[in-house]
Amino acid sequence: MKLSKKIGFLLLYTTITISIVISSMYAFIYNKLNKSSIDIIINYKGIFFTILFLMVISNILIYCFINTKIIKRLKVTEETIENVIYKDIKEKKLYDNKYRERDEITNLHNEISNVMDKLLDAKKYLKVEERNYSNILNAMSNAFFHLKAIEDENGDYIDGIVIDINYAASDFLELDREKIINKKLSELYEGFDIYKNKVIKVLKRIKQTKSECFARELNVIGDKWGVISIYFLNEGYFSIIINDVTEIKKHSEELTYLANYDTLTNLLNRHNLLEYMMELINKEEEFSIYFIDIDDFKNINDTLGHNTGDEVLRIAADKLLELKYSFDMETFNKITVGRVGGDEFLVVKEGKDSISEMKLLAKNILDALNKQFNIGMHTFNLKASIGISSYPSDGDNVFTLIKYADISMYRCKEEGGSRYKIFSEEMLEEINMQSSLSSAINNKEFEVYFQPIYDVNKEKIVAAEALTRWNTPEGIISPARYIPLAKKTGDIIKLDEFVLEEACKCCKTMQELGEKDFKVSINISYSAIKQSNLIEKLLSIINKEGIPPGSIKLEITEDEIIDNIDFTVNILNKLRELGFNIALDDFGVGYSSFNYIKILPLDTLKIDRSLLKSLEKDKKTLAIIETLIKLSHTLGLDVVCEGVEIHNQLELLKKINCDNIQGFYISKPIDFNSFKNFIIDFNKIERRDLSENNKEGREIRRV
Ligand code: C2E
Ligand code: CA
Ligand code: CA
Prior knowledge:
Blueprint: H1 3-32, H2 35-43, H3 45-85, H4 89-99, H5 104-139, E1 143-151, E2 157-165, H6 167-173, H7 177-180, H8 185-188, H9 196-209, E3 214-221, E4 224-232, E5 237-244, H10 246-260, H11 270-282, E6 287-294, H12 297-304, H13 306-326, H14 329-334, E7 335-341, E8 344-350, H15 355-370, E9 373-375, E10 378-380, E11 384-391, H16 398-414, E12 419-422, H17 425-442, E13 446-455, E14 460-472, E15 475-477, H18 479-489, H19 492-512, E16 519-523, H20 526-530, H21 534-545, E17 552-557, H22 558-561, H23 565-578, E18 581-587, H24 594-599, E19 604-607, H25 609-613, H26 619-634, E20 638-642, H27 647-655, E21 660-662, E22 670-671, H28 672-682, E23 685-686, E24 701-702
Parallel strand pairs: 11-12, 14-16, 16-17, 17-18, 18-19, 19-20, 20-21
Antiparallel strand pairs: 1-2, 1-5, 3-4, 4-5, 6-8, 6-11, 7-8, 9-10, 13-14, 13-21, 13-22, 14-15, 23-24
Bound molecules: ligand C2E and calcium ion (2 copies).
Residues 585-586, 606, 608, 642 line the site of one calcium ion.
């Protein structure tokens, strides 16, 4: 029987026994008392019985109290102990058997000792677990914060107090443990005030969902960045785990910088500029780009070394930034400066600018770069070439815009640099023309036209100038457009050879027509003259066609030969010795010098039509031409005046003894067949048989 039951029974028996004893004592006293005493008792009988009754009742009440308050508790304690000690009924039975014989107190003692042992074991276990848990947390590289939630009147979490952290947490916040424990989340997280509503929302959610519900990259404190996760623990508690990503963030920021900025000048790099321009295009915002290339930078690098070169680029970048800062706020905000690579910079100017505004900014850039500076002993005044293109007028994508600005910039370089050019369609045509020039020569798209040269004294056509025409599906292209390009690309050499072949054919026909002294002039470029095998080439062509060198006149222009006059004199002498005729073309244009007429081995002087234009009105021009003619004659040269368009000019030229004239007055340059017919008519060559069997007119006899 359990101790509680035993005590219960004992108490019951004791209560009953005490009640009986009290009652017996009352009965005994009642019987043994004398009369007078009896009278008292009789008189106070009620009181006595009431006392008796109350004593019995209080005895019963004491029993009930002890039973409910002590015995029942004892019973519950016993049952709890049993439950703690015996995991199952089998174990309990074994125990019952073992201790059946022993007395209850010993059993209770044993049970309590047993419970105490178990409690001590549990405490030890808990301590070990706690240490393990703390070790695990401290070994974690992530910062861990255990917080007790601070709730508002509705029971929602609004903040938290830190009750535990690991080492990583202390490291992350760079604070000692004591300075973190008992601190509020709001005191530790710098952005708490700004993001208060968001934080409270998250805390509320984790309480409701009782799970993890937040993971985001945040700037927690100072420059510290972390990926934050918040977990619900048991009611009223939550934890925060921070994965420190400060280093990764820094690294990625560095990478972002490297990806977007030029490390040498700290300006935006090509990639960033492209993205920026693409953004503007996406927003359909108009803008212009200024593609800047420092002139002669290669020279600086080659002669002063790369370190100086780098320093020059840094200074150039600073100058461009200085220029940007010199503008008012509105313009300042519209200008972006970057380095595309090497010595190439790019300025992007937002907004639609007029031509004059673009020119002004380009000029400002040139002036800014041109400001003098020193590096060590060296003084610099940078010059640059700037190509400008605009969105959307020149192109609808970044690459086209850069290409066009680049083309314009190269145009500046070709013209000597230190200038700017705004892109135009014409430049593009030129580029296209340039690229198709070579194939056009091979595809025989070129045709040679002939312009008659009239002998004023003989009053007949004695020569012709061969001039090329480019036949394209869109029409004939004038040499004024493609000759400069062909000179640039070197295609002029092939073209000149082709013209010589055609000129020989023309000569042959003229000779067959009876014009034995007929000469054909061809324009020969300086690049052709420079060829080491020029003479062999010329001879091989004329020999193939069976034409003597004397029938060919080579026209040269002084602006081309001016750079290497000795070399030219040497070559021309050789050519003349072989029998070729040499003419100095376009005399009177630019810096024509009488000196050349003296130095160069010449047969003919061709006076440019620009001189002839003012012939009628201006007596000085007539005097100059007359002097030129006299001088030429003195030196043994004959003279051709170009650009004679009207009869009056011819008359005037006749008076001053001009030998030959060439111009629209006689004829424009015409194709070979037209030319042949023209000569036949002009020189009054009798057409004996130009019928079907003799279209080439070989049997033609001069009248
Ligand atoms: P150029 O050698 O001075 O040729 C004369 C140019 O003057 C020709 O222009 C001709 O059409 C033009 N001309 C002749 N008479 C008159 C006139 O009375 N009035 C006007 N307004 N113009 C007249 P074109 O044929 O356009 O040739 C331009 C230039 O292109 C030539 O100037 C020549 O320097 C160059 N060129 C043409 N063909 C060739 C070629 O096959 N090889 C080389 N190297 N240059 C060529
Ligand atoms: Ca010419
Ligand atoms: Ca000419």
